[in-house]
Specification:
This protein has 13 helices and no strands. The protein is mainly alpha-helical and 359 residues long.
Length: 359
């Protein structure tokens, strides 16, 4: 009897093993094939979730025009990314053309340093000597740094190529976001179905928590970085610092990666004290001291607004996600850690309820 049972069970085990193996192989191969589209798709989902309130308001103005409302949101997002890129490209082209023209006419004209430079702590004398030599003979000044300049140039070209590819990916993500917005009802149903598998009673709440977390991160991290970068760029432009747009872009990048706009703006302060009047430099210093602490004020408010989990969980998830996966990790890390926190709490409550004695 036992032998007969084993003989009849063995083919079933083999059949299940073959099917599982084939399924795992197909899934693994599918992941490899779809890997190039994974990052744009995740960004598309994030953009769709972050922009959904705007889409809903447009839909109220244009009842029944889902595709048109989604197209308007996509157009706004495209302009948001393409206009700054065009301005940056034009600024870089103008700067390179100016440098090339100046070089062809007999070298770059660098103004000599002021005596104040010598008073800078630690680096004052060295900076003054190099600056003074550069103002007289720039070719002689840069000779010792030729290898580093070549390396920096290659890195800059590589970074520009990477930036171009990232812009193309982001445009693709915006298109995906538009498709998701236009078919938002189906997307919500699919999300609710998946969330219900994790916790049948609170699946809808989990999906809502994930949406809230994405929007809070968009406002609290990206939004604050954009505000600070805009104010920093405005300060650079009003102060007359060359390349104000480029410095503003660098301030945006450092703000997003949680370094803050401080290092960029403090560099501007040093430049102003070295080249401008004391009054102008002091005014720019005051502006800098007003802009730098803004994130400490705005971030807790925006990250914690309607948050389904403690703000510390969202912030740690965003920071850890960024360290692991870059900018996309700001959102993915926050969502994953928030869901893990909520599920742990829900499952703990379920366990306590099941273990409680029935009266």
């Amino acid at each position: 009897m036992n032998t007969h049972a084993r003989n009849s069970l063995f083919p079933q085990v083999v059949d299940i093993a073959v099917r599982l193996g084939a399924l795992l192989f197909l899934l693994a191969w599918s992941v490899v094939i779809l890997k190039p589209f994974l990052l744009p798709t995740v960004w598309g989902i994030i953009l769709a979730v972050a922009c959904y309130p705007v889409y809903e308001k447009l839909l109220q103005k244009l009842p029944g025009r889902k595709k048109l409302s989604a197209a308007v949101v996509c157009l706004a997002l495209l302009l948001t990314i393409l206009i700054p890129c065009a301005m940056l490209g034009e600024s870089l082209y103008s700067g390179i053309s100016l440098v090339r023209t100046s070089w062809e006419k007999g070298g770059l004209q660098i103004p000599p340093p002021t005596e104040q430079v010598k008073s800078w702590p630690l680096i004052g004398n060295k900076t003054y000597e190099l600056w003074a030599l550069s103002s007289k003979n720039i070719e002689e000044a840069i000779k010792p740094f030729a290898p580093q300049i070549k390396s920096a140039g290659a890195t800059a070209l590589s970074s520009l190529a990477g930036l171009g590819f990232a812009v193309i990916q982001f445009v693709f993500s915006i298109i995906i976001a538009g498709i998701l917005l236009a078919s938002s009802e189906n997307a919500v149903r699919a999300g609710n179905s998946i969330a219900a598998k994790l916790h049948p009673q609170s699946g809808g709440a989990l999906l809502h928590d994930a949406e809230t977390t994405v929007r809070n991160v968009a406002r609290g991290i990206l939004g604050v970085a954009v505000v600070q970068a805009f104010l920093a760029g405005l300060g650079f432009a009003v102060a007359g610092i060359p390349g104000a747009g480029l410095w503003g872009l660098l301030a945006l990048i450092t703000g997003i990666i949680q370094i803050g706009v401080g290092p960029i703006m403090l560099g501007g302060v040093i430049y102003m004290f070295a080249t401008s009047s004391t009054l102008a430099a002091s005014l720019f210093l005051v502006w800098t001291l007003l802009v730098i602490p803004l994130d400490n004020i705005l971030k807790p408010i925006l990250l914690g607004q309607g948050a389904p989990v403690p703000m510390t969980v969202i912030f740690l998830g965003s920071l850890g996600g960024f360290l692991n996966s870059g900018i996309i990790g700001l959102f993915v890390g926050a969502v994953i850690l928030s869901l893990a926190y909520k599920l742990t709490v829900l499952w703990a409550i379920d366990t306590e309820s099941a273990a409680a004695p029935i009266e």
